[in-house]
Design goal:
Chain lengths: 603, 388
C-alpha cells in the first residue's frame, strides 16, 4: 500500500503525525459522497483548541461518536473510542445510571463537542480502544480494535430511588447497572475507518485476525468497592487488521499480551459477518469502491411547495448556499406559473436549472418530471434535486408521480413553506394552501419576525391540526440548515405511501389552481417608473391580486430593483447580481383579466 | 422483575434527575461509575504567544477573488470527474488540458503541450490550453497584493497566490499594476497559500514578469505541483514552510495547517500581521482549515498588540467539513466573541454568509462590485482594504 494516498504530508512517526494521520482520514471522509453513502458517515467536528478531540455521527445512531488520542508507546498510538448517547434514545438504558444522568444535563451535547476537556465524559462512555501503527519504511498500516461484546456492571445491593420514602429499587439487588453492547456500537465507526482506508488507498487488508478473550464483569457495593464477577456474556473481542506488507503478527502478539485470547476461526459466524464488510471484499473489482461508482449515485429529491410569496426562493437560496459551502451540488427543477423564470434571476448562485414548460407541474406533469431529472443527471449529477413547484401547485397531485421516480432518486421530503403572516387568511380562502400543509413532511413557518407570539401560536395550532406528522420549524427568511430537513424526515416514504392511498380515495375532490381561478399575467415595462407613484400604485392594488414579482427601473437611478409584493406588503430590493435586459412585472391573482390590471407605465 | 419495568423506572428517574442531582447525590444513592480505563495523561496545549514583531500598517489589494465565473460549471466538472477527492491534475482543466476530455488528463501530458511557451509566450500557450482543456473560459483565479509598512516607514510588498487562468490573471495583474511591480523587483516574494488550481495554476503569469522571485509554499505539495514550479520557468529560491508557525518578516508570519482539502490537495498556509496599536490581522486564501481553527490557532501561537483580533481578509470557509450538528451552523454568530474590528471577505466565503456577517453587525468592509465581482458585500476585484 501507499501511505501517501492516505496521508500526503511527510509522516515522521511522531505522536503528532499519527494523530494527524487519523484526523486526515476523518476529514477526507467528509468530502466523499460515496463513502458516506456506504458507511452512513454523517460528518465530523474537529475540536482543536487547548486539547484535541473529534466527534462524528453515523446514520441510524442517535448519539455522537468520539475519538481521542490518549497514548503513544513504541510507535503505536492508542485512541479511545466513545459513544455519547442522545439524551432520549433507548440505548441510554444500557449505559450506567451515572452516565445516563450526565446526558440529562442541559449543556451535555455542547460538552460532547469538546469532550477532551471533560474527564467526566472521557472516563465514561468508552466503547472501544483502537491501536494504530503506521510504517513509512514498509508502507504498511496496522489497526487493532479492542472491545466487549457486552460491557456489564452490577449493583450488588441494588440502587434505591432517593425520591421515594418507601423502598423502591431503581436497580434490583444483583441487578445490572450497565449492560452496554459495545461491539455493536463500535461497528459503524470501525466499518467507516476500514472502508475509508480501503477506498482511499485502493488496498484491501492483507492481514485480518479476530480474537475472543474471556473477561470478568464488574460489581460494586454500597461503599463503592469494585469486584470481579464471572459472567458468560461479557467477553472481549479483538480485531487486528493489516494493510500492505508489515510485521503484523508481531504487532498483534504484543497487543494481545495479558489477554487469554483465542482465535475466532474464519468459518465462524462472527468472522464471516465481518468478512462481508465493504472494506474486506476483495472478490469485487476494487475499482468499484473507487471514484467511478458515482454512476450509481442516486440524488436526494426534495419537493418544495408553498403558496405564492411564502418564501420558496429564499429557501432555495439558503439551501444552495449551504450545500455549495460543503462542496455539494444542487440541481433544480422549476416551473413558474406564467413561464417567466423570474426566480432564476433572483438567485445569486448559478446552479443547474431545468425549467418545465407549460404552466404548473401538478396539472401537466406526466413524464416531464422524469425527463427533467434525467437531464440534470446527465449534465451535472447533482447531490440533491429540488423540485420547486409553483405557488399554487397542489402537491397531492404529484404524489403518484413521485412514487414512479424512486428508481432514479432518493425521495427525501415534501417541504412546505408557509407565509405565517397571511397563513390564516390563505387557509380560509384556498383549498390548495390547505393541501400544501396536509402533504408536507416538513413545514417551514416563515416570516415569524413579522408575527406576534400569539399569532405564531395560532398559526402553529392550525398547522398541527391539519398535519400531525410533519415537523414544524419556524424560520425567518427561510433560513434553515439543510441537515435539519434531513434529520426530520426519516419516515417520509411510508408517509407518502399512506398519502397516496388517501389520495386515491379522494380522487373526486382533487383541487388544482384552475379550479381556484388563479392565473397570472405578465406585463413588460417599456419605460422608467416614478418611484413614488409606483409605491402608491402598489399600495392600492385590488385584493384579488395577491402576488406581484418583477424587475423595474426608476427615473434617475441606474440600478434595477426587484419588486416583491404579497397581499398588500411590498419591498423594492436593489439588484446586486447581474442586471437583466428586460424589465417586467408578473401579477398573480384570482379571477385576473388582462385589461383589469393597470400598467404602471401608464400612470 | 422484568427489565422493561426497570427501564421505565430509570427513565422516570432520569426525567426527575434533571433538576439538579449531582454526582454527590449519586454516591449517597449507592451508584458508582466504573471506568475501565487506567488514568491517562492528556497534554494541555499552552498558549505559546510567540512574539513575531510588529508592523505599522498593512494594505491588501484584491487583484482577483473570482476563482471561477460559474459555480455550476465547476461543480459539474467535479461531479463528472468522480467527486471531491479526484486529483486536480487529472481533470483536464486548464492549463493542463491534453484534449482527451474530462477526468482523462495528467500533468505530464498537459504540460507537454505548453511547456516550451512558458513563461514568456502566455498568449500563445493559452490558445493551446483553450483548445485542449475542459471549460477554459470558466477559469479565473485568486491573488492579492499585500503591502506591509514597517515601524520605520519602509514598505514591503508580497504577492499572495497567482490565480488560475493565464489570460484573466495577466489582465488582472495589468489592471492593478502588478506586472510592473514584479518586473521592477518591488515584490519580495510570492507566497502560495495552497496547491489548488485557482490559486496556483496561474503561476507562469508571475514568472513571466519575475522568474527570479522567491516562492514560499506550505509543505504538502505533490510532485506534480513541485514540477510545475520548475516548468513555469522559476529560477529563484523555493522555500517550504513546515506545519506550524513560520516567520516572514517583523510583524508578518505564516501558519501552515496540515488540513486535507478537496481535489487531492493537502495543507494551507495563512498569513498573520501584528499591527501596532491595533492587533492581529489574519489573511487567508481559502481558510480550508475553518475559521474557528484559523483564529484559535492564531490565539494559541501568537502574541499581538492589545490581545485583539483586529482584522480579517480573504476567503473564509466557515467550516469546510460536514459537521454533525446542524444547529452549530451559528459559527457566524460565534465569531462575535472575537470582536473583529474590520472584515474584508470574498472568494469562497459565500454571499449568504457575507450577508449574515453584515446582518450580525460585523464590520464588513463593502466593495464596489467591479471587474466581475458578484456583490458589494464582497471586497471585490480591484478593491483595497487597509488595517492600521
Amino acid at each position: 500500500m501507499n501511505i501517501e494516498t492516505l496521508y500526503p504530508a511527510a509522516f515522521n512517526g511522531t505522536p503528532e503525525s499519527l494523530n494527524a494521520f487519523l484526523r486526515t482520514l476523518l476529514i477526507r471522509g467528509t468530502y466523499d459522497t460515496i463513502l458516506k453513502k456506504i458507511t452512513g458517515y454523517k460528518g465530523m467536528y474537529l475540536y482543536q483548541q487547548s486539547k484535541e478531540c473529534w466527534t462524528v455521527k453515523f446514520d441510524n445512531f442517535a448519539g455522537i461518536f468520539g475519538i481521542l488520542f490518549v497514548a503513544f508507546h513504541e510507535d503505536i498510538g492508542t485512541f479511545h473510542l466513545y459513544y455519547f448517547p442522545s439524551p432520549n434514545e433507548s440505548m441510554l438504558d444500557k449505559f450506567s445510571l451515572a452516565e445516563a444522568i450526565m446526558t440529562q444535563e442541559e449543556t451535555y451535547l455542547e460538552k460532547v463537542r469538546e469532550f477532551a476537556l471533560h474527564p467526566a465524559l472521557f472516563r465514561q462512555f468508552h466503547i472501544a480502544t483502537l491501536r494504530l501503527h503506521v510504517s513509512v519504511q514498509n508502507q504498511s498500516l496496522w489497526l487493532f480494535y479492542e472491545t466487549h461484546i457486552r460491557e456489564r456492571v452490577y449493583a450488588k445491593e441494588g440502587v434505591l430511588d432517593p425520591r421515594s420514602e418507601e423502598k423502591v429499587y431503581l436497580i434490583e439487588p444483583e441487578g445490572l447497572d450497565k449492560d452496554l453492547p459495545s461491539f455493536r456500537l463500535l461497528l459503524p465507526l470501525m466499518n467507516f475507518l476500514n472502508t475509508a482506508i480501503t477506498r482511499m488507498s485502493l488496498c484491501t487488508p492483507s492481514y485480518f485476525k479476530l480474537f475472543k478473550a474471556s473477561q470478568a464483569s464488574v460489581a460494586y457495593d454500597t461503599l463503592g468497592h469494585f469486584s470481579d464477577v464471572k459472567d458468560g456474556a461479557s467477553a472481549k473481542i479483538l480485531i487486528a487488521l493489516g494493510y500492505g506488507e508489515g510485521d503484523f503478527v508481531a504487532l498483534t502478539e504484543r497487543a494481545l499480551m495479558g489477554h487469554h485470547a483465542e482465535v475466532v476461526h474464519e468459518a465462524m459466524s462472527l468472522n464471516c459477518f465481518l468478512q462481508k464488510a465493504p472494506w474486506y471484499d476483495i472478490s469485487d473489482d476494487i475499482k468499484q469502491l473507487s471514484t467511478h461508482a458515482f454512476a450509481q449515485h442516486k440524488p436526494k429529491f426534495i419537493v418544495v411547495t408553498g403558496f405564492l410569496g411564502s418564501g420558496k426562493t429564499n429557501f432555495l437560496q439558503n439551501y444552495i448556499e449551504y450545500e455549495t459551502e460543503k462542496n455539494r451540488f444542487v440541481g433544480i427543477i422549476q416551473n413558474e406559473i406564467g413561464k417567466t423564470g423570474l426566480d432564476g434571476k433572483l438567485l445569486d448562485y448559478s446552479y443547474s436549472l431545468v425549467e418545465l414548460d407549460e404552466g404548473c407541474v401538478c396539472c401537466s406533469l406526466a413524464g416531464q418530471l422524469r425527463m427533467g431529472v434525467n437531464t440534470l443527471m446527465q449534465t451535472i449529477t447533482p447531490d440533491t434535486i429540488i423540485l420547486e413547484t409553483t405557488g399554487v401547485a397542489n402537491p397531492f397531485n404529484l404524489l403518484s408521480e413521485l412514487h414512479e421516480l424512486e428508481d432514479i432518486v432518493d425521495f427525501e421530503a415534501i417541504v412546505t413553506v408557509v407565509d405565517g403572516v397571511n397563513a390564516l387568511y390563505l387557509y380560509d380562502e384556498f383549498r390548495v394552501f390547505r393541501d400544501q400543509i396536509r402533504a408536507a413532511d416538513v413545514i417551514l413557518l416563515n416570516k415569524i419576525d413579522q408575527m406576534s407570539e400569539s399569532q405564531i401560536d395560532s398559526v402553529k395550532a392550525m398547522l398541527e391540526q391539519n398535519n400531525r406528522c410533519a415537523k414544524i420549524v419556524t424560520t425567518i427568511q427561510c433560513d434553515i440548515h439543510p441537515n435539519l430537513l434531513h434529520n426530520s424526515i426519516i419516515a417520509s416514504t411510508s408517509q407518502i405511501a399512506s398519502l397516496i392511498s388517501e389520495e386515491e380515495k379522494n380522487q373526486a375532490t382533487k383541487s388544482t389552481h384552475v379550479q381556484d381561478g388563479i392565473s397570472s399575467i405578465k406585463i413588460p415595462l417599456v419605460s422608467f417608473l416614478n418611484r413614488e407613484k409606483f409605491r402608491v400604485y402598489l399600495g392600492k392594488l385590488p385584493k384579488n391580486i395577491f402576488r406581484v414579482k418583477g424587475i423595474v427601473t426608476f427615473e434617475e437611478d441606474d440600478n434595477q430593483y426587484v419588486v416583491q409584493y404579497v397581499n398588500g406588503v411590498f419591498e423594492l430590493i436593489e439588484q446586486q447580481s447581474e442586471q437583466c435586459t428586460e424589465t417586467f412585472l408578473v401579477y398573480i391573482g384570482k379571477n385576473l383579466e388582462k385589461n383589469f390590471v393597470q400598467n404602471p407605465c401608464s400612470m | 422483575m422484568s427489565t422493561e419495568n426497570e427501564n421505565v423506572k430509570r427513565r422516570d428517574f432520569l426525567k426527575g434527575a434533571v433538576t439538579g442531582l449531582g454526582f454527590g447525590t449519586l454516591a449517597t444513592m449507592g451508584v458508582f461509575s466504573y471506568s475501565p480505563m487506567r488514568s491517562f495523561f492528556l497534554p494541555e496545549v499552552e498558549r505559546k504567544m510567540t512574539d513575531f514583531g510588529t508592523c505599522k500598517s498593512i494594505k491588501i489589494t484584491n487583484i482577483s477573488e473570482t476563482s471561477w465565473f460559474d459555480n455550476a460549471t465547476l461543480m459539474g466538472d467535479m461531479k463528472g470527474a468522480g467527486g471531491l477527492l479526484v486529483n486536480q491534475y487529472v481533470y483536464n482543466w486548464p492549463p493542463f488540458g491534453d484534449g482527451t476530455g474530462l477526468a482523462k488528463g495528467s500533468y505530464e501530458k498537459g504540460i507537454a503541450k505548453i511547456k516550451h511557451l512558458l513563461p514568456n509566450k502566455l498568449e500563445e500557450a493559452w490558445k493551446i490550453v483553450e483548445a485542449n482543456s475542459v471549460n477554459p473560459q470558466n477559469a479565473g483565479g485568486f491573488a492579492a497584493l499585500i503591502e506591509i509598512e514597517r515601524l520605520d516607514g519602509v514598505k514591503k510588498k508580497y504577492l499572495l497566490d497567482s490565480g488560475w487562468s493565464y489570460d484573466w490573471m495577466d489582465k488582472s495583474f495589468q489592471r492593478e499594476g502588478i506586472d510592473k511591480m514584479l518586473a521592477n523587483g518591488e515584490i519580495e516574494a510570492l507566497i502560495l497559500s495552497h496547491e489548488h488550481f485557482d490559486h496556483f495554476f496561474g503561476l507562469p503569469v508571475t514568472m513571466k514578469y519575475a522568474p527570479n522571485i522567491k516562492i514560499i509554499i506550505p509543505e504538502g505539495f505533490y510532485k506534480e505541483g513541485l514540477q510545475y514550479i520548475k516548468d513555469s520557468g522559476h529560477k529563484g529560491e523555493l522555500m517550504v514552510h513546515k506545519t506550524g508557525k513560520n516567520d516572514i518578516e517583523p510583524g508578518l508570519c505564516a501558519i501552515v495547517f496540515d488540513v486535507p482539502i478537496i481535489c487531492r490537495v493537502f495543507g494551507e498556509q495563512s498569513l498573520f500581521a501584528n499591527v501596532q496599536g491595533k492587533g492581529l490581522v489574519s489573511i487567508s486564501g481559502c481558510c480550508h482549515q475553518g475559521i474557528i481553527q484559523f483564529i484559535s490557532t492564531a490565539k494559541k501561537e501568537l502574541k499581538y498588540d492589545n490581545d485583539q483580533m483586529y482584522g480579517m481578509y480573504g476567503g473564509l470557509h466557515i467550516s469546510p467539513f460536514d459537521d454533525w450538528d446542524p444547529k452549530y451552523d451559528d459559527l457566524v454568530i460565534g465569531l462575535k466573541k472575537w470582536d473583529f474590528k474590520s472584515i474584508g471577505c470574498n472568494h469562497c466565503t459565500g454571499l449568504l454568509t457575507a450577508r449574515k456577517f453584515v446582518a450580525a453587525g460585523y464590520p464588513v468592509v463593502q466593495g464596489t462590485a467591479r471587474n466581475r465581482s458578484k456583490s458589494k458585500v464582497y471586497l471585490g476585484n480591484g478593491d483595497t482594504i487597509t488595517f492600521g
